[in-house]
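Below is how a single chain appears once it has passed through the pipeline. First comes the sequence as given, then the structure the pipeline wrote out for it. We keep one example in the README because the format questions we get most often are answered faster by looking than by reading.
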Amino acid sequence: MEKTIIILQIHPNDTVAVALRQIACGETVTAGGYTVCAAEEIPRGHKIALRPAEMGDQIVKYGVPIGHATEAIASGAWVHTHNMQTNLCGELTYSYTPAVRDLPPAEPAEFMGYLRPDGRVAVRNELWIIPTVGCVNDIAKRLASANQDLVAGSVDGLHAFTHPFGCSQTGTDHAQTKKLLAALVRHPNAGGVLVLSLGCENCTHEQFLEELGAYDPDRVRFLTCQKVTDELAEGRKLLQELADYAGGFQRQALPVSKLVVGLKCGGSDGLSGITANPAVGRFSDLLIRQGGSTILTEVPEMFGAESMLLNRCRDKDVFDRAVQMLNGFKSYFLSHNEVVYDNPSPGNKQGGITTLEDKSCGCVQKGGSAPIEDVRGYAEPVKKQGLTLLYGPGNDLVSCTDLTAAGAHMILFTTGRGTPFGAPAPTVKIATNTELAERKSGWIDFNAGTAAEGESLDDTGARLMDLVIEIASGKETKSETNGYREISIFKDGVVL
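Resulting structure:
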């Protein structure tokens, strides 16, 4: 009979192992050739020392240092915030030692999606209401709720994406708001878009048209509320016209090579880097082998894991832009007199993540092993097939909106703690542990906790690919069924 694995040494060089279940004080456990007696209770997802460490010694997990000991640590001891801390400080200099490994191509599977006139594909055929300013948020919400009868035939939904910006912003913030909103208007999952303005905001109609560029007037309509007597009646008329246009699209068989999938984690725990994130990494490699594309963001959660990413850059130009992105985000923190390592969150720590390096090394597992083909700025559309790094913060709502704006048809969101929200793109919640998947079944779409219970990561990733194809073909995510959809825009500057 196969022995149940209690602790896992992720890499042969690791000085710690991760508890796959709670370990009692005095319990003897074995991993990587080490047998230790737990000196205290070790919670699930937390680290246990495989060998002793002196103060200042490096604590190694995933084969890389994730911090150093702040006191002597005995073998079998619980290793966490009370006896170790980060090694991170500020900007770093990196050298490029290429380790690019192309994945073998595979015949692409198919999904049932929508083909747009410009050749792009969509996994949803929805009507979106995009306010250019927060002042019309409630009008947008009333229009969405009052016109749900337009969701019929091949029109999959009608949603308003409200936000507090579009006025009283200057400089970069003003530019980023326009850029993000215009990118959402262009998203292929929207079969029709109503751009809703007030009429006196900083984000003027003329500015927005310039940011949007060429557009199909059958697909995109504009309503300036100050210019009409009854904005609800006029909005209804425009939405009806958009529904008539969007209703002309029907699902058809399309190759998954056309899919772009965003990769995100939030509410992470000590199992994220062992189960859900590497399972997503296996999926990412599978999709890329079939000609598809994935997007990895959360730049602050790459700090400390650079050795796992940078040498996979396709060439020196991509490497240089990745370094600029990383150090640029560190500079952003430092310019606000913030340390670069003020992460993980209290919930992350409770789940077993100790330092930012610990979190980052687990986070980047979502990117699999494929070469990094490109680096894109905030809300910039993906241009190259394969794996792209996208500039954006770790914040769940901001980064998922960013992924949507970059063109993600859906987002795979791993979580060890659970979270209900959804982005404009279908947001697939992937549990790191079975207990969460069963307890919050109204939130969770996929259980990757099976990877800690004997299922191989390859098999977990393959199951996830099957689910992605189902969702791309129309199956609703839990956040869609619950009606949870929202956006959040990255800001930095003053409010006038």
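The domain at 7-85 is CATH 2.30.130.110 (Archaeosine Trna-guanine Transglycosylase; Chain: A, domain 4).

See the next section for the split statistics.
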